[in-house]
Protein: Uracil-xanthine permease family protein
Organism: Agrilactobacillus yilanensis
Amino acid sequence: MENKHVAEVDEKLPLGKNLLLGFQHTVIAVLGAIPVPLIVATSVGLPEEQTRFLISAVIFSAGLSSILAALNVIPRTSPMVPMIMGASFAVVPVMISTLKSAPNLNVGFQVMAGSTIISGIVCFLLAPFWAKLQRFFPPVVVGTNLIVLSTALLPNAYHWMMGNNAYDLTKSIDAKPLLLALSIFVFHIIISKYFKGLLGNLTILISLIVGTIAAIFLGMMDFSSISEAPLFGLILPLHYGLPKFDIVSIISFLIVMILGMVEVSGTAMGIHDIADKKMTKDQFGRTLKTLGINTFLSGLFNSVQPTAFIPNVGVLNLSKVKSRYATATAGFMLILIGFVPKFSALISAIPKPVFGGVGFALFGVIIGSAVGILKGVNFDGNQNMLIIGLSVGVAMLPSTYPNFYAQFPELVQNIFGSGILSGSITAITLNVFFNFKEVFKKDPDVEETVELEPAEEA
């Protein structure tokens, strides 16, 4: 049984199927990559050219990160799992603060690059020690973390359905975006039931294509951003010059890096479970080494600290295909898109209600994965149910009341202002409190992972 599971993760798909599945991951990844640079650009008033570069740099870095997570490019560092990686929302407040406090935007990006590079080095060096913390991520924490992730991200589906009225709590939804989103929702449900084989693996992509065509006929597509975007844009290291190192900025980025390590640890445990690949301490360490390398490269290319894209975890579940080669293909596609701003503009021009129609499936299916993990957890004579309930409750707070932590210190806002981070930290802390003896009992013997030969990745 185990050999079958490993082979499923390492399965090399036929070229056509691999390209289609990779493209499906790519579309969702671009959607996840764009918000972070757009939020930063809007907050600090970036010129249009710098905004386009930041978006392209984030997409390009997401491609590099995804390849390094899937393939054994750098020996003994890759977890070799189907994990799409990209921009972390947790770093947004620190980026905005750094850029606003700099004498000019160019210096701000140099300081940001230096702080990100240092954070990546620290993460890589901490990886061997961090691997010893696997005891803090038992099934009850991993399952809870997946529920927290989906619960924190599910409101995005509602916002996407709102179209132009998204994030405005004083407005209600218009009829046209609502009907479009509901139509795509129903369409996706129907084809998910009746489509089998390759078509069954591509239900998300098919729904997005049909929804985009419908949006064009409804007059909801705005092609202006596509025509304005350049056809080609080269992404070179240190675009803004040599990095600068500011101690205050470095400390802020390191705090976010530690929080990001917690987030990726929990998400990676869930991905390993979905992909039926054993999460050994070696795998745990490789995941954090990959995060460190990817963070270093992100700083080098003036991008932002990466994390695992949760919507792509939903794609893994819905497509039923767990091959890491599909996500590696997506990584190569993301790199190409990073060089072609017009293509990323095309994907970003798809009306948000179209994504809202499949958003419930993307985020909701992760809850199903969590249930699969939690059904093996013992709930008799312990407080594991309380761990789940309180963690989800804490995670929902920022989504329900976005300004709840507005008057708190910046550090508190950075930690608890993210439902994903606050919920994950709550689950870890409560598990230590309630299951102290289990957490700190002597480690059992851990099975070593079987390494792939580097030539296999050539």
